[in-house]
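Protocol step 4 of 5: obtain the predicted structure for the target chain.
Materials: sequence only (see below). No template structures provided, no constraints applied. The aim of this step is simply to have a reference model before the mutagenesis design in step 5. Sequence pasted as it appears in the construct record:
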Amino acid sequence: MHAQGGHPGNTHFATVRRWTATVDGTVDIAGSLHHPSENGDGVRGRIVSSARGIVGEWAMHHATGETKVHAIPVRAGETLDFVTDCREHETSDSFVWTVKLTQHRADGTTQVFDSAADFRGPASSTDELPAQVQHAWKLALCRPPTDAEFGLALEFCAQQLAELHRTPRGVAAGSSVPRQVLVNVCQMLLNSNEFVYVD
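Step 4 output (structure tokens):
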């Protein structure tokens, strides 16, 4: 698997790229599936919604075809999987499948995702964020947070997570949303430490 496509394994090992909706709305998908080889029986591409099942399916053998699906309803947290398999025989199954997803949000805004540029490995987990915030607090202020302070810090993290998912341009290149939230918390803590001392 790579940014442009990949090569599925046998009938038990498909390639899968996953997109996760961060907000409610609808999604339009436009793309093309290309199987360049004359050999083998080609590949099959499917778009599978976690809520609706298969929403698009195409088979290509030594051909290129459009992969369009319009107005797929999505809710925050739902996934769309782009699954490519070898059909029946595992021979000459390299493929290129690039797509652009246009997410139409309930508030009327749109966001475009390019599979070659915007899809990457699994998203970073937020599971460790509370422990990381506590550790950062101890490093910056030389004491653990009180329960009230910790609650406010976690509330800040939740607001930051929501905002950065809405407007991902706030995430530094090469970073992830949870890491950027931790950076923002650390900057807040370092600034608050400066205000403790009055000249």
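Step 4 remarks: The chain has two domains: 5-118, 129-196. Residues 129-196 form one domain.
Proceed to step 5.
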